[in-house]
Every structure is written in C-alpha cells, then in structure tokens.
Amino acid sequence: MAPAVVIEKLQKRYGSVEAVKDVSLQIEPGEIFGLLGPNGAGKTTTLRCLCTLATPDSGKIEVSGLSVLDNPKLAREKLGYVAQEVALDKVLTGRELLQLQAAIYHIPPSQTATRIDQALTLLGLQEWADKRTGTYSGGLKKRLDLAAGLLHQPDVLVLDEPTVGLDIESRVIVWDFLRQLRSNGTTILITSHYLEEIDALADRVAIIDRGVVIASGTPSELKDRVGGDRVTLRIREFTPVEEAENAKDMLRSLPFVQEVIVNEAQGNSLNLVVDPHSEALITIQQALKAAGLPTFGISQSRPSLDDVYLAATGRTLTDAELAAAGTRDPKQERKQNMR
To answer: Are 24 and 9 in contact (CB under 8 A)?
Structure first.
C-alpha cells in the first residue's frame, strides 16, 4: 500500500523569507501524524503546499501515490483541509453550508443528505444544524468547519490548529472525533500549539524549526531519545549569566547529571537531564548550597515533547513562540497570506 502522504525536500520562499527550507515527511495510511513547531517554523506553508493552495519552489508531494504538483485537481478530491481561521457565511445555517460544500465537491444528490446527517451526528451538531452559523459559539463553528472538511470523505484530512482557542469541552469532542476517524481508516495530518494534544493523539510526530524537520518519530521514541528525567532549576528569579554558567559547570560534575542547558529566555534558568534518581533534587540543592548558591525554584519531571525541542534547539517551544512574535513582520505576513 502506498503511503498516504509523501513530502520530499520541500522548499518554499516568499520574497526574501525562506518559509520552508527542507521538509521531508512520509505519513502512513490510517495514522494521525502531528506537526509541531513555533509560529514561523513552516508548518502552515507545508500544509498549504500539500493542499494545492501554494506552489512550492521545489520538492515532491504525493497523496495516495498521486503527484499533487502534476495532478492538483485529482489531489483535491483526496484531501480535506481545515484552516486555522474559520470562515463561515453567517447567514447560512449549518446544514445549508454543508449542502453548499457538497455541491462544490460534486457529491451525488442521492448521497448528500445522508453524508450531512452523518457529519452532523459525528460532531454533535444536530440541534444546531438549522440555525444560522452567525449564532454559533467558537467551538460550534470549528466543529462545523471540521464537518465541511470531511464531507467528501477524503483519504487525508489536514488540520491546521483545529482546537486553538477552544474550551476544554470542545477540545475533548474534537479529540474523540479524530480518534473515531482514525479507527475508520482516515489519515490525519494535524498541527497544534498544544503539546499535550499531539502527545495524546499522534501516532507519529515531526518537529519543524525554521523550515527544517529537526526530529521525527513516535512521541515515545522522541522522548526516549532525550533520555532521563528533566530538572528545571532557577538559582534566582533573574540569575546573572555568569552565575548560571558557573552553576552549569558545577552541576555537570555530578555523576547522575547527563546534560545542563542555560535557558537565557527564561531568566538564565537551568534545564538538566538527569538519570532517574529519587534524591536528585536534594543532591542538587546540597551541591548549590555548598557552592554558596541559593535555590529559587526547582522541579523534576519525565521528558516531554517540549524537552525534545529544547534538546534539539536549546530553547523551548514557548521561547520560540515568543521570539517569533517579537520578530514577526506584519506587512510581510499580509503579503504571504495574499499569495
């Protein structure tokens, strides 16, 4: 069986901005594949190229063995795309919007009503189906957008931040819906800012940073590669860099410490990788005290996907988001969105 999605050496530039430098992915049929990375990493551009909404400068893209670049019309029949921003006609009811979507995809009239009822039931929208979408909450709008994306029963459903801004109840409904789709054989490609969402849903994950895939595998594999427990240490609320570096050198000499990173974006806190050790925190604090250093805050946890990103880049996903927000050019973004 051919892979559901193949992306090889994808590149896309907007003027002087290299949005995607080198992205290669292979997604198997019937799996949920998560794409993680901060704003500006190249996630949305990759999805737009896959869904024929942007033309890459170079690279190969296939869906179910079909070249997206050579056969964009046929590829669209195999793809469902739900963008991050919901765009609904406020005058139409939910059912009318789905009827319009069915007509756009040339779904046979004999099947339209059944498919619409199935989609509304899957997403718990039956009681809202005949109300205007302008009266919907944010969660209901997102669920209707998902219904529209799967109405033509695509091989691959592509979701860009499907639960951003949703309350917990709506997020759980969407999660259960995606798991049900997977059990029915639909392949799902999802981007998300929520690490716990990707960890809970995805069979496999790729992490993108600055237009390049820096890590890929199952969530468990990625976390196992990092190894050990994580210790987050703040010597002071705002630690001088010289003091943090001195502490780093001292802590690296402890036999159970594998690695120490100084996190400048978080006030020169220290992020440690340690062997699982029941008294790691006590031993670290004793070592700091012996060196004449205080402990402002310290915690220990198992590895997370954020730890995977930190190990690969030296910063957390949150840090990367903040950095991207501080350097983003609104004019350039508007130009990119218009292309």
So the answer is: yes
